């Protein structure tokens, strides 16, 4: 089963094409990395995958279906840690993860016992149980990243996308992240797409199935 299949994709914001005849296949449970310099279109590609932007031409299928609302539930997104505004808002780990269940919270959007239960089961699996009632802003960078990953997992996605997960993260948090990636793949059987500019770190610390470089609008295989 193919998790993602993009064929002959073209996209431009105005005149200059950002994606030019881009092709990508990600199989179920496969782990891939996409590298590329500043401004080559990595974020644009993510936005295409999550349906935020539409291709000018070409096709994209997620689990062999065209884009539809249900597909979004299959994709978990872990944004860049610096872009997360988790520092000012006084919210606990348990609340942050549970709020991600928004769609299933019913009319009044108030989490019930079953929602918190789901969160606690997952926090346990991620070894974060003891931090459930901690305010998120009091956690170290590495733990906070683990919480954000847990949040992305709570809707049971089949694909997890990481946007620059190691940028602005200290060495020990990076090592912790590498362990988490291996666990995720085994425990939750998700496909992983990791966007980064740290090719050396990925090569030395992660077991990826493929690494691609986004350049001139297309993806080129980087030999591992
Ligand atoms: N909404 C937009 N309208 C017009 N141009 C845009 C828009 N968003 C991005 N761009 C341009 O498209 C190109 C690709 O941007 P994108 O953010 O996808 O690159 P990136 O590879 O993620 O970059 P970075 O590594 O710096 O985050 C850039 O030249 C950017 O300036």
From TrEMBL:
Return the protein name.
ABC transporter
Give the matching PROSITE patterns: ABC_TRANSPORTER_2 (PS50893)
Name its species: Peptoniphilus porci
Which PANTHER family does the record match to this protein? Answer: METAL TRANSPORT SYSTEM ATP-BINDING PROTEIN TM_0124-RELATED
Instruction: Domain (ABC transporter): give its ranges.
Output: 4-224
Q: Name one Pfam family in it.
A: ABC_tran
- What UniProt keywords apply to this chain's record, in alphabetical order? ATP-binding, Nucleotide-binding, Transport
A single GO molecular function term of this UniProt record = ATP binding
- Gene3D superfamilies recorded: P-loop containing nucleotide triphosphate hydrolases
Assigned protein family: Belongs to the ABC transporter superfamily.
